[in-house]
Amino acid sequence: MDTEQLDRSIAALESAKDTWLALDIEDQITMLGDLRTKTATNARRWVEAAASAKSLAMDSPLVGEEWLAGPYGMIDAINALEQTMQRIASGTDVLDGFTVSTKNGGQVVVDVLPASASDRILFSGSTAQVWMEPDVTVDSLPDTVATIYSDPPNRGLVCLILGAGNVASIPPLDAIYKLYNDRQVAIVKMNPVNEYLGEVFEAIFEDFVTAGFMRFVYGGGDVGAYLTSHPGIDTVHITGSARTYNIIRYGTGDEGEANRAADSPTNPRPISAELGGVSPTIVVPGDWSRADLAFQAEHVVTQKMNNSGFNCVAAQVLILPESWDLTDVFIDEIRSQLRDLPERDAYYPGSEDRCEAVINGSGTAEVFGSGEQRILVTGIDPTVTDDPAFTTEYFAPALAVVTLPSPSVDEYCEAATVFANDVLEGSLGANVIVHPRSEKTYAGVAAMIANLRYGGIGVNTWSASVYLLARCPWGAFPGNAPSDIGSGIGVVHNALMFSRAQKSVARGPFAPSHRTLGKGEFHLAPKPVFFVSNSQMHKVGEYLVDYAASGRTTDMFKVVGAALRG
User: Is the pLDDT of residue 371 over 90?
Assistant: First the structure.
């Protein structure tokens, strides 16, 4: 560990932190535009590096995961943030053009998707809303937006970002948030798992690095420990595990646990965190066709197996109604999907041990594939609330299934809500799959969506959609205490700069466009691009990067053409 180099990096940031805080907003916007250009220039290099590290050929459809959750997510976030910054600069209402309404007894919601004519084409059938905390009113909402610019801090701060090793866009998106939403300069410690991307990110953030507003550093836990306690670090942001958070804040071993029990931190700095959890996918019973069952089985398997299962919001517990006559059929469809998936590298360290723990745990484990493991666990007793399937994030290609009593749809929805909120660990992301006619028929569905205590909720779409929708805040449901951190504290992304958001609810189509007749929905969307079975995911992802960077209509229709072929 080169402590002198680390000290120099922090000293450079300390020298520039007040300069960044005082930088003219037009100059900040210019830097965003240059950041977009450099991201587009380095996009293929970025994806090629990630594909190589994960043993994916560039012509594999699965490389689309890297295009989508890498440079596309980055450029789309820049575009959304740029619009917000331009409105702040001109004195325009940041929420101008976004529909504000109330639901659930007066809770304020803001429609953030679609936000443009192109959104209505590219995201046909999809919507997203950001729900505010209950005490926010329509009249008070404007006072909770972009407050860092209406009431700026009186001194600059240096933030340490401890980067994630799984999803490539997490560290740069966290950096953008800290720079623009919190007005802090940032030192990003790359995770050893994906530190190969560091040189790409340094090229993308070249202007920020040159100006002293950012630094990238590398190394293991010793570097992280040195930085978290460095006197030049004012705040910390971590994406990772609750265990790592607790070590940083309270220390290690028995002493650390005693400190946590007493809420006596050894590191008093403000620490924001996104820490994952056990994510549920709740299936509402309904009159599903065989095609519906197959399509939604693809959906559930995608929620689990995207990125080989190494996502903080990967579906972990599939909740099904006990009395639904299609429950066993649906599980069989999921088995079929798992059986047919191509082999891929379980690249994240420790996966083998975590899979072994799942196999040796409760329930009946079925392993699919001759190489890397894909695991389905059935027969878990939902009344054993301390089962590891409910309390420990797998972070592995393993999906658990539980069934809950379902004397009626409304009673089942209430029971599933209680189970998800009170039994499962964490509050980052939850998923609901429901036939449109069922949602219209049963009041319990709307009550479930309103009452789920998760920061991101996907209705007929994976809650990871919230991650990629830049105008949505991304983080745990509010209310975690530092000594009981759960899925974390604070949010990132959040291009509209909400300061009192409670959760985001994204919606997608229940069925592809050619099967909408009679389902109570109409849209033009084919198979979702993020499905692991989409043969054009890599093409759509690459074309989306081109379109996000250029804004050209011709590039948009390349996206549409590839999506229709998928």
Answer: no
* Percentage of residues in the chain having pLDDT higher than 90: 96
Has residue 25 got a pLDDT over 90? yes
Strand pairing category for 501-507 and 127-132: antiparallel
Contact status, residue 57 vs residue 526, Cβ threshold 8 Å: no
SS3 readout for 215-229: EEECCCHHHHHHHHC
CA distance 378 to 17: 53
What's the CA angle centered on 473, arms 450 and 147, to 5 degrees?
110
Q: What is the length of the chain?
A: 566
Q: Which of 470, 544, 556 is nearest to 66 (CA)?
A: 544
How far apart, in whole angstroms, are the C-alpha atoms of residue 192 and residue 195? 5
Tell which CATH architecture fits domain 279-515.
Answer: 3-Layer(aba) Sandwich (3.40)
pTM confidence score: 0.97
Q: Cα separation of 41 and 36, whole Å?
A: 9
Instruction: Give per-residue pLDDT as tens, 474-521.
Output: 999 999 999 999 999 999 999 999 999 999 999 999 999 989 888 889
Report domain extents, the chain: 279-515
Are the C-beta atoms of residues 307 and 379 closer than 8 Å to each other?
no
